[in-house]
Amino acid sequence: MCQFTENKMDAESALQPLTLVLGKMPREADPAKVIAAGPWCFAGQEDFFPEWENRYRFAPEPLENGEGLECAARDCLALCVDNIALVARHLCPDAGKLPDAYWQILLAPWLVDVCRQIVERNLRVQAMIRAYSDMELSVPILPGNCAFDFVDEHDFTLRGSLGTDFNHWLFSRLLEPIWPASWKKIELEPTSRICKDNTQKAPFSWRATAKKLMLGLGFPKLKGMTAFQALKYSLALNHPCNGVDHSLDLKIFTTAHGAHLPLDPLPIFLAALPQSLKDLRHPADLKKNATARVRVGAISVYEDTQYRQKLAIWRARGNRLAYVQHGGNYGQIEVSCDRDCVEYSQDAFFTWGWKKQGKARGNFIPLPYPQLQRIANKWNYSGKEDLLFVGTEMPAYGYRLESRPNPLQTIAYRKDKAVFFENISEELQAKSFYRPYFDIPGTLQDAAWLLPRFPHIRLCEGQLLPRILSCKLLVLDHHGTTMLEALVANTPVVLFWNPESWPLCPEAEKLLEILARAGIWFASPQKAAEKVRNIWGHAQVWWQETEVQKARRLYCHEQALTINGSENSLWIKTLKSL
Predict the structure, then answer these.
(1) Total-model pTM
(2) Which of 12, 120, 353, 413 is close enough to 561 for a disulfide, judged by CB 3.0 to 4.6 Å?
(3) CA dihedral for 532, 538, 540, 541, sign (positive or negative)
(4) Three-class SS of residue 320?
(5) What local confidence, expressed as pLDDT, does residue 66 receive?
(6) Where are the alpha helices (DSSP H) in 374-500?
(7) What is the H or E stretch that residue 512 is in?
(8) Among the listed residues 498, 495, 488, the one whose alpha carbon sits nearest the alpha carbon of residue 514
(9) 284-324: per-residue pLDDT in tens?
(10) How many CB atoms lie within 10 A of CB 85?
(11) What own/partner pairs with CB < 8 Å and gap ≥ 24 does 563-566 have?
């Protein structure tokens, strides 16, 4: 994997009376003399800028409402689909001889990620120009000849979508064609690369070999499923398809207006192109099979280029694909991008209970998922007086382009954690455990920010699920997989989040109202803390109240479906019917 060196030019010397910082904030930068393009300017270096979120000025947030986000998502999908053929021709001179389905399956998961960054960053560039075009600003930019070597799609997400250098370079490219006359351009030296030797083969791993074998099944082993279930479900798919093909051609996402970009996006696509895609060899011809069959794709499709090519060949031969929900935000968020063109567009998408998600199009089939089925009503209070608080990802970049907190709202989301703990007693704080999200680049500090402020709170380590199934009370400040697992397991839980920061689709909003009426969900950390204080002494009794349990069961029926007995017969029957 490549690692980037620091810019040779001292960025501090580039600071003028007022400077717009697009990338990494220079050390000792005077808050009175700089404007930060966004919270990402401080990602990875918060310790050097105490209270930065209160001391520095930020550029305006362009995505403050659902309508703007929905429009941006449409532009992203259109930009992706409109450029699949262009990127395909760059990768393969004879790309036109292969079916569209091949290139759509192969390129969409990566290309839609790049397009999300282009569209989102372009909106920010436009907002900055509207706000500051008449001001005299110095703007340090990275030149166009910077080079980026991404190993694969996952590497692009970590060092591209969430990478300081790539984002600074992308902002620079989008700004240059429409540069305001009153701005002074400060061109930094190009980033240089120090690449490790990637020619050596990875050591043999039984785990990696087993995973590869499982991905070769018609129904691979998915999270929460056993290998035995994967084999049984694969056998159920071993039949020709006679029904209607619900697959969608991605060209339905093409729009006439596009994303109004100030430049040709192809150089950006090529700069973001991972080596794993460059190295692929493409078939000369793909003839359709006499009969079509269905196979289920794994979530590895987003990160495993070779696996995705096998699925692309499968679809190009006239076969079909299906996907399975693998997390809790499906069926809940109002706007999404990648799943619309990667997963929902296939012949079938198996959900954890829901049948509709706003304006999303797809053949949605609800089934009881083994991951949830296995823990239904499994909460078993350990007797320990512990309050478990679980947080989620806090990206400083708006890299997903879906219904989650935007970068400035992410700052408020983190502050709400502190507000919650400030509103419970020190005695309760001493009984609290905090579970942070995984440590990934381009995000705000999590436990490192919270725990020093509340020294009585302890860090929750190890496997999370056993703690969910045994804690006295769970507190969540977001919706998602953990929320569904807790409700299915019947773990006492108090939920809170700002609904403006987490827009839900209409179907999920109605369900949230049910939880609110039952006193399970709250729109502020203060109200959630008040609820926790009031029920702490009798949390188990409160959780078993008739209205609380009724709300839990209604929510689970629509979002976390479980049944009495084994789920296998339903899955096998459904798979055989495809």
Answers:
(1) 0.93
(2) 353
(3) negative
(4) strand
(5) 75
(6) 407-422, 426-429, 447-450, 464-468, 481-489
(7) helix 506-517
(8) 495
(9) 989 999 899 999 999 999 999 999 999 999 999 999 999 99
(10) 15
(11) 563/368, 563/373
**CA–CA separation, 363 vs 340, rounded Å?**
11
**Which helix (H) or strand (E) element contains residue 475?**
strand 473-476
Question: Quick check: 258 pLDDT over 90?
Answer: no
Alpha carbons 5 and 2: distance in angstroms, whole number: 10
Structure tokens at 396: 């400083």
Q: Name the amino acid, one letter, at 64.
A: E
DSSP assigned state of 504: B
Strand ranges inside 276-431, DSSP E: 294-296, 320-324, 348-351, 364-366, 387-390
Q: How far apart are CA 53 and CA 411, in angstroms?
A: 7
User: What is the spatial distance between Cα 282 and Cα 127, in angstroms, rounded to a whole number?
Assistant: 41
Give the residue-averaged pLDDT of 428-446: 97
SS3 label, residue 480: coil
- Measure the CA angle with vertex 225, ends 223 and 229; round to 5°: 145
| Nearest by Cα to 79 from 248, 334, 253 | 253
The tokens for 433 are 């455990």
If residue 171 lies in a helix (H) or strand (E), which one and from where to where? Answer: helix 164-175
Contact 140, 11 (CB under 8 A): yes
Rounded to whole angstroms, the Cα distance separating 233 from 376 reads 22
Instruction: In whole angstroms, give the CA distance from residue 243 to residue 165.
Output: 49
pLDDT in tens, 332-375: 999 998 999 999 999 999 999 999 999 999 999 999 999 999 99
For 216, the token pair is 């070769």
What is the DSSP code (8-state) at residue 375? T
Q: Mention every residue, 6+ apart, whose C-beta is less than 8 A from residue 487.
A: 493, 552, 555, 556, 559, 560
pLDDT exceeds 80 at position 195: no
Q: Tokens in use for 93?
A: 């001179």
Tokens of 510: 């109605």
Secondary structure (H, E, C), 48-95? HCCCHHHHCEECCCCCCCHHHHHHHHHHHHHHHHHHHHHHHHHHCCCH
